[in-house]
């Protein structure tokens, strides 16, 4: 998936391994800080649509499946930020709050962070080889 394939403005992309790493790290930090509701509240839908593919690339297909399930729950992308924000604020009554929280709990934080670290290490190893850039991999 590229930026052109997404709905709306995007800050991230998957054009290079460094882009994949940035997308996965930013997702992790957002999700770890406030779950999937916060992720949807704070991310452009176009960026959110890139996350499952980034997670697969770093070796986290289970986490990617969880994010895909959350995306399926959220309805039209144009509503994701509003619905995510509402689920955060109205966490006891919003219809998406409990399902998003349940899905958030299906991601193993330690395992996902380890995969992100491993991917980053792999990229740094390529940077140490003369004539090879991480973006060539």
Structural class: mainly alpha
Number of strands: 0
Strand residue percentage? under 5%
Order of helices and strands: HHHHHHH
Radius of gyration: 15 Å
Distance between the termini: 17 Å
Biggest sheet features: none
The overall pLDDT, averaged over residues, is 88
Shape descriptor: globular
Helix content class: 55-70%
Number of DSSP helical runs: 7
Low-confidence stretches are 1-6
Describe the overall structure.
This protein is mainly alpha-helical and 137 residues long. It contains seven helices and no strands. The chain has helices spanning 17-42, 45-48, 51-58, 61-74, 80-89, 97-104, 109-127. Helix 1 packs antiparallel against helix 7 (109-127).
Task: Walk me through the topology.
Blueprint: H1 17-42, H2 45-48, H3 51-58, H4 61-74, H5 80-89, H6 97-104, H7 109-127
Summarize this structure as a short list of keywords or feature phrases.
single chain; 65% helix; 137 residues; mainly alpha
